[in-house]
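Readers of this paper often ask what the protein records in our data store actually look like. This encoding replaces a full spatial description with a residue-level series of whole-number codes. For reference, a complete record is included directly beneath this paragraph.
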Amino acid sequence: MQAFLPRESGGCQPAKFLTGGILQPASWAPLTAFAGALLAVWWLARSRLSSLLLDRPNSRSLHEVPVPRTGGLGLHAGALLGIIMIAPRLPAVLWIAFAALMLVSFFDDVRGIPAPWRLLLHLAVCAWFAAALAGGNNLLVTAAAALAVAWMANLYNFMDGSDGLAGGMALSGFFFYGVAAWLAGNTEFALVNFSIAAAAAAFLVFNFHPARIFLGDAGSVPLGFLAAALGLIGWLQRDWTWWFPLLVFSPFIVDASVTLARRLLRREKVWQAHRDHYYQRLVRLGWGHRGTALAEYALMFACGALALAALALPAAMQAATFAAMTLVYLLLITVIERSWRRRGANAEMGNRE
């Protein structure tokens, strides 16, 4: 695979940015992304389009009233507005794949696409992206990258089920991507990630509980794709190591992956909507949307800060950090599982009485 954004040719370096770069248009990109997304999401929440694209509650939902699911369009509009100001030297295949996934996901929001066809389309787009990025050098690495990117795009959609959760993960995840790229001397790439984080912050103004608008598939799937694709590109550029994106986005990756594995073991239809994610269980255990979001935010920022700090550690200490976080997640899963079983036992006893 090849690297992009060579820091020795062009681009604004951190030192130059701090001394005189504030006058450069690119330096205003994150603020522009925030303002653009804020205006776009505000308009979408009130537009006729939102009345046509409503997320109506069902037995598997955590919300109780219809909510527009067009917020992701506003988030991405703001982020792209900021990125245009930066004009980053990112591979064209990134934006083509992003646009393709957004179109597929928007059609899914409007008309609905059967799950097998939707997954096949996602895999095809992500495989093409990975192959173009790899240049056909290593088939095994390309296949692994394609599966990882497709899974991240889908798991982000799976995890978008509670007020403020997906927007918070985007704010935290892309913010720490930006800080890591900045510290690596790649200011241009840092500003791209800061712009996405800023747009997510604007979306959260309307999505934090009680949410007035949701991301929709057209928001969550491309957002998950960007989390994986930019994480992969940052690794290829040596802005961070391979495990950095995994740890930064681990609150979503662990919840979705463990939930999928658990449902597979129970031979359930994994493509059907459900309320078995750990964040969904926290909401139903009495934490509520607000309490669950705040707890998840604490975990997200802790993982991001830990990942950032670990980048400066020797390889052995990095491995120990990764292992320690694995144990932390096992502990958290165990605690939630026990609380969930206790809740079921108490409900059963109440029914008998």
Q: What stands out?
A: Residues 1-6, 8-12, 348-353 have pLDDT under 50 and may be disordered. Strands lie at 54-55, 67-68.
